Amino acid sequence: RNINWNGNDFKTQVNQLDKTKPVLIYCLSGARSAAAAETMRADGFKTVMELQGGIMKWRGANLPEIKGDPAKTAGMDQAKFDALLQTDKLVLIDFYADWCAPCKKMAPYLEEIKLEMADKVQVVRINSDDNQFIVKQLGIDALPVLLIYKNGQQVWRNSGFVEKEGVVAKLKEQ
């Protein structure tokens, strides 16, 4: 069953499940499912198993997955990604998802960097949910991930939340 951790009826739907039967929960990154698992254990579920690292880690390990039409979720291909790097500016790429809390926290300062450093830096935000092919190609298995490219070559990679000052410092190093 697909039960939305962020939905208003999460507890209602979960309480319809048999607490004596094992439950496997997962989300895309593992963060929401970890919070849901903690809540379910506190509510008396006997066996709650989690997919550590979520579907992104699963995909990153090339494990099998049954899903809808891949043409709808593949998104950007390698050629389009490579075309983004064809500039004399530094390219700061942000892999994010709309549901990712750290991604939401970083979005405003990334927009500031885009405006403040426009003469030297091109900022590109790539939604990981909509661009699964390139996410897999680049080994993105957590969110957020920031990449800096210089002359088409990756020179920095950061997984997880980072403050604006850290990103600006890395950009100025290049």
Keywords:
174 residues; alpha/beta; four-stranded mixed beta sheet; two-stranded parallel ribbon; 8 helices; 39% helix
Write a structural description.
This protein is an alpha/beta fold and 174 residues long. The chain contains 8 helices and 6 strands; from the N terminus they run H-E-H-E-H-H-H-E-H-E-H-E-E-H. A 4-stranded mixed β-sheet has the order 4-3-5-6, with helices on one face. A two-stranded parallel sheet has the order 1-2. It is elongated, with a radius of gyration of 19 Å. The protein starts with 9 loop residues before the first helix and ends with a helix. The mean pLDDT is 89.
Strand-helix topology:
Layout: H1 10-14, E1 23-25, H2 31-42, E2 48-50, H3 54-60, H4 70-73, H5 78-84, E3 90-96, H6 101-116, E4 121-127, H7 132-137, E5 145-150, E6 153-159, H8 164-173
Parallel strand pairs: 1-2, 3-4
Antiparallel strand pairs: 3-5, 5-6
